[in-house]
Amino acid sequence: MNNQSLFRHQAWTINASLVCALLLHACAAQVRDPADDATDPHVSEALATSKAITGTINSAGTSWVSHKMAMTGPTDVEATLSWTNTSADLNLYVYVDGVLKGYSNKSARPETVKLTGLVGKELSFGIKARSGGISSYSLAIKLTTPDPAPPPATSTTLTGSIDSGGTSWRSHKMTMTGPTDVNATLSWTNASADLNLYVYVDGVLKGYSNKSARPEVVKLSGLVGKELSFGIKARTGGVSAYSLAVVLSAPAAEPPPPPPPATCATDPFPGRPSAGKVLWGAAVSGNGDPTNRHEIPGGHPLSVRRTFFAWDKRATSMVTMARNDLTAGRIPWVSTKTPSWADMAAGKHDAEIDQMLLALDALPGPVWLTIHHEPEGGNGTPNPDDPAGPAGHLAMNKRVRQRMTALKTHNISLAVILMSWTWDSRSGRDPNQWYEDGVYDILGIDHYRDSTGTLLTSVWNGIRVWADDRCIPIAVGEWGVRGTDAAAAGYMKEWYEAAAGSATDGKGAPVLGLSAFDSSLNSPSGSWELVGEQLTMFHKLLGDPRTARIGAL
Fold first, then answer.
1. Cis peptide before 34 (omega within 30 of 0)
2. How far apart are CA 362 and CA 365, in angstroms?
3. For FRET with 103, which of 32, 61, 217, 345 sits at 20 to 30 Å CA-CA?
């Protein structure tokens, strides 16, 4: 993280103009314009159980048409859009009271959207002609009433006494009559006691809570079997009365299917994980060894590791570090800062570039390479490392790509790394100045949250849409969120879950990897080292089956 890092740890309240800009960008002219309603001949059509609507649309003229229906209660929707012109590309969007609920934006017929349990006053079906000129279309709509709600939850409170020095285990059993969600909370009176809670189905442990403080809570969903059993263990503290509150409920209905994934090609490049997998790793302070800090306690190697090098180390210690990472089962994500960007772009350092590329390409596995990460500078000023600015940085990386092509490298992926602050309107920057199609394999982002809170901010969401428009996947070279408690750990897990689901959530470009900045270096606002509950969660996620392994990407 460079000395300009202070400027990316910005306040995260987005002003109204930025929200509007991001929303317009995300919908890319697909958001309904109120003016459309004034001229759309179908806006007042009545509700029907099944309906077929036809019309004509023109990507070069009236490229947006909407059809509205009233809602009289919770509604399941199945909508299928077909068209006659095989050269046309039409997309389908479904809104409830003006809020987008689902869409289909494939490049082939038909487009289908299925949604369940929609609630509101008005359904609207938007059709967007993206390309191909004039086409007739047919929109088949089927509306049905959702299945009845599940029976209400049942609540039970169980009480008793337990003694760590005597009868230190108690169990309570219940019969199951079908799939069951469980919410169990164990409290006790003796503040010196330490009690733990375990939940079994037919004798098989399904979940537990073993903190050292009251209460212990276990929440499980979709349990199937004949018998529930709640085990209470007194670890220390002698005798204590306890209270176990149990809420049993039928599982909720299946959520609506997610929107379809983006239609960008998923061409492989070195080190790209498969959909649903996440490269989970870190930069450890000062290029430190992650073995004792993370991999031994986590039981698995990092799947990606960020390290940083000066230009004179590009073919020596940088290559050695990358080799060591591959041997340890990690994808090395290395970066180096170069001589003058203009001189690099002009070919004055081609021999040095080739030396670096050939050395990295000879390694026995994939390497992600970044040439001068975070090149933007700070607070609207040019990067003090080079006055050439965005055009100079881009030209330098284009030269590196040209050398990769000339040398026919096969193990190297080129990744730009920019600050997420660059996508915030308050930065005064234009991310388009730093990017050009065909130069990079990966859009790297460094993304921080100065407070304890979600990393899934509106700025982050906008970055995913921006990258999706350019069909480039994202990986995070550095990230950090403040806090050491369970809340901070929860935001880390949310961050991981979002990346794991990003290939199919329909919210933008897939997020391939997340590398935490586990360091205090160059951090004027405070260390980003993982401690407390965050460190524990980081190690837990190393063992998650969705964490990519270098031998099975």
1. no
2. 8
3. 61
Q: What is the pLDDT of residue 16?
A: 34
169-175 and 216-223: which strand pairing? unpaired
By the 8 A CB rule, do 413 and 370 touch? Answer: no
Provide the b/e sequence for 158-194 (b: ≥16 CB within 10 Å): beeebebeeeeebebebebeeebbbbbbbebebeebb
* Crossing angle (nearest 10°) for helices 350-361 and 389-407: 60
Q: Are 33 and 64 in contact (CB under 8 A)?
A: yes
Three-state secondary-structure class, residue 302: coil
With H, G, I as helix, E, B as strand and everything else as coil, classify residue 265: coil
pLDDT tens-digit profile of 51-63?
A: 999 999 988 778 7
* φ and ψ of 54, to 5 deg: -125, 160
Asked if 370 and 444 touch (Cβ cutoff 8 Å), the reply is: yes
pLDDT digits (tens, 9 = 90+) for 455-511: 999 999 999 999 988 999 999 999 999 999 999 999 999 999 999 999 988 888 999
Amino acid at site 419: M
- Write down the pLDDT at residue 264: 64
DSSP 3-state of 257:
coil
Spatial CA neighbour of 487 closest among 517, 511, 454, 515: 454
Cβ neighbors of 181 (< 8 A, separation 6 or more) are 219, 220, 221, 222, 223, 248, 249, 250, 251, 252
Q: Which of 313, 335, 310, 357 is nearest to 478 (CA)?
A: 335
**Which residues, including other chains, have CB under 8 Å from residue 110's CB and lie 6 or more apart?**
80, 81, 82
What are the structure tokens assigned to 56, written together? Answer: 């004509």
pTM of the model: 0.56
Q: Can the peptide bond before residue 545 be classed as cis, meaning omega within 30 degrees of 0?
A: no
Angle CA 361–441–130, to nearest 5: 155
With a cut of 90, say whether residue 6 has pLDDT above it.
no
Taking the C-alpha atoms of residue 283 and residue 514, their distance in angstroms, rounded to an integer, is 10
Query: Are 474 and 510 within 8 A, CB to CB?
Result: yes
- Give residue 102's pLDDT: 86
403-to-345, 357, 388 alpha-carbon distances in Å: 11, 8, 21
**Extended strands (E) in 420-551:** 442-449, 474-481, 511-518
One DSSP character per residue, 416-448 reads EEEEGGGGSGGG---GGGG--TTT-SEEEEEEE
HSE on the CB side for 390, CA within 13 Å? 14
Span 290-336, pLDDT tens digits: 999 999 999 999 999 999 999 999 999 999 999 999 999 999 999 99
What region, left, alpha or beta, does residue 237 occupy, with left being phi > 0 and alpha being psi -120 to 50 degrees? Answer: left
